[in-house]
Amino acid sequence: MSEVKKIATRESYGNALVELGKEHEDLVVLDADLAAATKTGMFKKVFPERHIDCGIAECNMIGIAAGLSTAGKVPFASSFAMFAAGRAFEQVRNSVGYPHLNVKIGATHAGISVGEDGATHQCNEDIALMRTIPGMVVINPSDDVEARAAVKAAYEYQGPVYLRFGRLAVPVINDRPDYKFEIGKGVTLREGKDVAIIATGLCVNSALEAAEKLAADGIEAKVVNIHTIKPLDEELVVAAAKECGKVVTVEEHSVIGGLGSAVCDVLCEKAPTPVLKIGVQDVFGESGPAVKLLEKYKLDGQGVRDIIREFRPLRYNCGIHVRNTVARAAHQFRAVAQQDEAVRIPVGVVRRRKMRADIAQSSRAEQRVHYGMRQYVRIGVSVQAEAEWDVHAAQNQPASLCEAVHVVACADPHMYPAFHT
Questions:
Q1: pLDDT at position 249
Q2: Least C-beta-crowded within 10 Å: which of 11, 19, 62, 354?
Q3: Would you say 264 and 179 are in contact if contact means Cβ atoms under 8 Å apart?
């Protein structure tokens, strides 16, 4: 078996700048005393007259880039993500975003894969920061092929662009003849019907690895690569959610404000769907080998697989809208219940007799059972679920003054057709 080719996307950034520099004399590159690390030193070696080292002064670098753009140049301002998006945020917002100038920001060393440099340099907030700037395009490529294409697309795009690159060498997954990069358009890498895994950056490879492992467990996962987080490919996200019934987002970034938040923003408005966000869970990073950190934070293929296997989006609180509650449960059953065993879905709380009557009108396959002073509604109760139901009844669950509604469904559509219409 041949060894998988791995290249860090920061290397791709440096190579792409050299290639573009040969074609476009208006391209200039700025750096903040990190040319060796960001790989813009490659460009400096070939075009020293078009490379400006601004020193350890990232805020000034962004201001210089803004000025150059007004003089007809296409500047790529480069630094670590922590400094480009963090330290210089005000200048990016006010000097680049507000006047909507044609400045490109190449941010390397993003995420926890920075490794031994530790929490101070592991920027897990940059996507969130850049998403909030009006008109800012945010791109997070998954491999060498995509990173090179992203740099070229950024040059051709008229307006501010934030490009996110990594330090860790990652597998090349897009080296195929039909690959096409387009800003704002995601790419479906694998088809599946049980769950949609929407990933970005180096986590796209983790998503593909997880999908392979899930397939061995009988779970068919759809994998979508979202290289452009803003503008998001809303059409693709909504279609994947409707097709699979549940969505998992995977990103080497905080779960607050990144890809997961962008996906939730769209789905809550256009196609409400259970979403699980895998990423950095509201904590700072730590020093350590990059690969080990990805494993610890469950961002490798095995970690993503393990989390998805436990994802059971079967709980809803629909308030007093009991008919909607039952309909929602039925929809979730059709979307999720692929197992042979019964699926029990707690879907809400009933406080009034009228609501219980509404339930009776909402489903053809329902039974009523009295246990003491509490009344339970069973909908589509399977033989397999009887034992489980009796256990809950014996324990007088739930321990509440309210009557609880339990929807119990079986995967056999011939037994309970009400859930399969």
A1: 98
A2: 354
A3: no
